[in-house]
Amino acid sequence: MNSRKAFTACALIILAISVAAQNSLDSLLPLKEVTVVGERYREVIPSQRLSGERLEALNSFSVADAIRYFSGVQIKDYGGIGGLKTVDIRSMGTNHMGVFYDGIELGNAQNGQVDLGKFSLDNIEEISLYNGQKSEIFQSAKDFGSSGSVYLRTRRPKFYENKKFNVRSFIRGGSFDLINPSVLWEQKICNNVASSVNIEFLDASGKYKFRYRRVLSDGSTAWDTTAVRENGDLRAIRVEGGLNGYIEGGKWDAKAYFYDSDRGIPGAIVNNVWKHYERQSDRNFFTQGSFQKKLSDSYDFLANVKYANDRMHYINPDSTLMYINNTFLQQELYVSVANKYSLTGNWDISLSSDYQYNILDASLRDFIYPKRHTFLLSSATAFEYWRIKAQGSVLGTFVFEDVKKIERYSDDELLPGVQRGTPDDKREITPAVFVSYKPFHCKDFNLRAFYKHIFRMPTFNDLYYPEIGYIHLEPEYTIQYNLGFMYDKEIKYGRKFSRFLVKVDAYYNEVDNKIVAVPGKSGGLYRWMMINFGYVEIRGIDVNVRTTFNPFPDGVFNFNLSYTYQRAQDFTYSDEEISYGGQLPYIPWHNGSVILNGIYRWWDINYSFLYSGERYHYSANIPINYERPWYTHDMSVGKKFCFGKFNCKVTAEINNLLDQQYDVVLNYPMPGRNYKIILKTEI
Amino acid sequence: MKNIYLFLVFAFLVLFSCREEMEVFKQEEETVAGSEDIGISGFYLLNEGNMGSNKSTLDYYDYGTGDYNRNIFGSANPSVPKELGDVGNDIKIYGEKLYAVINCSNKVEVMDKYTAKRIGQINIPNCRYIRFEGRYAYVTSYAGPVELNPEYKQLGYVAKVDTATLEVVDRCMTGFQPDELEIYGGRIYVANSGGYMFPNYESTVSVIDIATFTEIDRIEVARNLHHLRIDRHGMLWVTSRGDYYTQPSRLYYIDTGTNRLIDSLNIAVSNFHLDGDSLYIYSVEWSYVTMSNTVTYGIVDVNKKEIITHNFITDGTDAKIKIPYGIIVNPVTKDIYVTDAKNYVSPGTLYCFGSDGKQKWNVRTGDIPAHFVFLYETSDK
Q1: Is the Cβ of B242 closer than 8 Å to some Cβ of chain A?
Q2: What's the whole-number mean pLDDT along residues B164-191?
Q3: Which of B39, B64, B94, B128 is deepest in the core (most CB within 10 A)?
């Protein structure tokens, strides 16, 4: 209740300020930033994309929240601000998703998962999602290496007129005792070089009320219980700094990223257990640089380099459970060179080569300190002929792993299950083909198709985690077939315009050699083993409809609908089993989203709706494993105003308007109705 | 454009419509066999459920009707929030009550033995197994006081519970991570596992004098002890899980007269059931060669102290059982019941075999079917 009162008070104060400040509004052109960005020219299959004000208008807290609006994406959300959020694209599994930050992949060799909940939208300018791969050929070899990819692009400084610097700050506050200030400073150093520094701080108790309720068959209440979600607190600081420069025929940038956080792990709510005590702290650092130049009319060159250092500390201080206190440190070094050569005006070839080195240290007894060398070599070609655009690429991946021999203990003192030797070297050659065809000359209607074969490497946890890992795991493969179309129509009449875009894709994916945990080792005790055992078939349809129009000169209206149908069947266990052919855990048959966004002069209003249909939490699709659909309505109202020299915008958000009580993951209750207020100030 | 507006109106109507309520899960009934009049009403089967899933469920097989009833707790107790709980670990009947030890819910659920209606609960953190003597229940728990010096160590204990008030009245410290316990001759024998201490597993059986409720002896056996069973000759049979490396799982026996280890049989044991002089055993061991589990079955004659057969399933059904997880033998008909926990995330299967080792029937259970108790027609055993 308190947060609601505080919210109302804040809203009133800010509204008062904004009304008082309305006189100086003339200098604001609210429509300027809403220009509809055309689809990228070279891409054979354009991405799904959220950027600029459309991204800002969503009531999203992190990158994970924003990605939910894309079609074909399933998010596993353990609830609250600090809860783990992982993304799965077209049901192939989290580990098949590549996440790129300013063009360079974010890695996690330990468990293969990038927690997108940790990435703030604060300085993100654009999020793009690609099925298969970004169908561009001038990119590093890693860009060819995932089943699907998310690209996060941070803001690149732009200075209007004679401005020497830009300063932008946000302060967000609201439910969960959230306080989240941030500041971004962009400075023009000389004509072609700019710097930026972004600092963000976040503190939240993560507390929220949740309610579980069951009824009898006559509809009367069987039981109904309300409690407060505990141990979901989060405190984090993020500091990011970068230099960007333009050179003749090219550009370069360098950046450093630092993130430090401490959070509670809220845990499953089960009978008689309403609170958990596990904690996790993360310290992530990386620095990366990129250089790109057109060296001649037909030759382009790109180089990337990165070093990352990630420390994770996990502790379970609950004195009734097994005491765990572990620290993991992983480091990554990455270099990449990409070359593109234009053979003719409409035929390009490229050659890229990457090298990556990963090491992991863990405070586990007898840990074997794995080291992984990955060499990637890609060759690709793209051509445009008549109304056909096509691309083909081949990626060679060569992985060599080494483990440290444990010298502290003699053979008979070693921990049980300690694996000896090193895994086999892996050599994989995997292709991808992308084609699009425009059948009508004057209509923007495209048919498109792709085929891609790729794999993910077993993670260090899969291979080496004491007791569970298995050193001889093979890669897990995916094969994707996609067929679809896109229709784009833009009409302009005087000052009015409207645009209508529809994309429909049907796809068939296979995941083979899937790495699954099976009960193993000795009975009686609960033990899992990782083996290459699973097989999954996924058939799906993604639909995307977007329209933008201005019903009156000072207003713009955006509508976005995405819908996904998926039949993701688990064929892992034999056909005698009840799980044979069952829908994969937590994959709904139907899910989708609707975004409505209206901008009128200095006001904007946003409504978004997310729907996730019925699911099962295990592959055995029987009533006891059933999970109900869930859907949330989020709304926000924003208003721009001037306050002296400052351009400001205040936004009030209500999320989960109908206060729906739901779990995305069994026994992890999600927040009900919650509020947030955001003040953005720019100079 | 008009179509879009129509669509939007329609969409709004759909979107704001109410969501169906979730019903308490109803019990499911299946007839699997004919009626048998054997002086036993039936048996309860406790399904463990995966950790964090809160899906420990209770099934009941009725000999009178031949019906298998899945998930009876919800129907018997529709008003209990969050159902039975997370990871059931033991089930026993004493007097008129049914006791289910729910490990990750930190409690023993106490029910009426005929109806499974809830009577109350005993809060014991990280509780494992339960036995009874006189008016008290004795429950092992991993969660003793923490010693931080020099490193984190935590002894387990046996809780003494008044079965009338369901209150813990006393505690007696044991070794690290005590598992099953057995009561014989005024003493409680406790198998200490040290499961949280690996690779420094415990290797002793604690002996507690019931009268003074103090630990009076420790019997050195082998690493990582798990199950205990007393036979009618006063011999205590103890299983070790082994350390999964140099010491394999094995079956040991202790003379309760001298409280000393006599010998062992070279046979791996994951779980067992004693019926008369026949100790029915099975073991599951992972093989890196086949990348699968090797399962073995057998019967030990506790009087002769030798393995009399290596298989009590004779019709080849054993090939279908992936992970045997629970076992019990009907003392009257000598039918053998074995559960298969499969991949832990699928519902399990309960198999019934005749004394000739041939399958009589099988039925789907809850997740990870594990622990049995017979309900006798006449009060008490």
Answers
A1: yes
A2: 96
A3: B128
What is the distance in angstroms between the Cα of A320 and the nearest Cα belonging to chain B?
5
- Least confident segment among A147-156, A399-408, A511-520: A399-408
Measuring CA to CA, how many Å separate A513 from each of A479, A630, B322? 11, 32, 20
* ipTM, two decimals: 0.92
Angle at alpha carbon of residue A169, lines to A165 and A174, rounded to 5°: 175
**What is the Cα–Cα distance from A594 to A341, expressed in whole angstroms?**
42
Binning pLDDT at 50, 70 and 90, where does residue B243 land?
confident
Q: Does A31 have pLDDT greater than 50? A: no
Best of B17, B110, B244 to substitute, by most chain A Cβ atoms within 10 angstroms, is B244
Nearest to A210 by CA among A675, A671, A676: A671
B19·A628 Cβ contact <8 A: yes
Higher-confidence residue of A21 and A45: namely A45
| CB proximity under 8 Å: B 293-352 to A | 293, 320, 322-325, 341-347
Say if the Cβ atoms of A524 and B226 lie within 8 Å.
Answer: yes
pLDDT in tens, A570-616: 998 887 788 899 999 999 999 999 999 999 989 999 999 999 999 99
Residues of B in contact with A576 (CB under 8 A): 320
For A273, name the nearest residue in chain B, comparing CA atoms only.
B105
What residue segments make up the domains of chain B, in order of their start? 5-376
Report how far residue A165's alpha carbon sits from residue B248's, in angstroms, rounded to the nearest whole number: 70
Query: Is B84 in Cβ contact with A523 (below 8 Å)?
Result: no
pLDDT digits (tens, 9 = 90+) for B277-311: 999 999 988 766 677 788 999 999 999 999 999 98
Q: Do A620 and B152 touch (CB under 8 A)?
A: no
Residue in B15, B23, B286 nearest the CB of A529? B286
Structural domains in chain A plus CATH codes: 2-682 (2.40.170.20)
User: Which phi and psi angles does A388 have, rounded to 5°?
Assistant: -115, 135
Predicted local distance difference test score (pLDDT) of residue A418: 55
Neighbours of A248 (CB within 10 A): 7
Select the CATH number that applies to the domain covering B5-376 from these four: 1.10.760.10, 3.20.20.80, 3.40.640.10, 2.130.10.10: 2.130.10.10
Q: Are A468 and A529 in contact (CB under 8 A)?
A: yes
Reported pTM: 0.91
pLDDT tens track for B26-39: 899 999 999 999 99
Nearest 5°: phi and psi at A33?
-85, 0
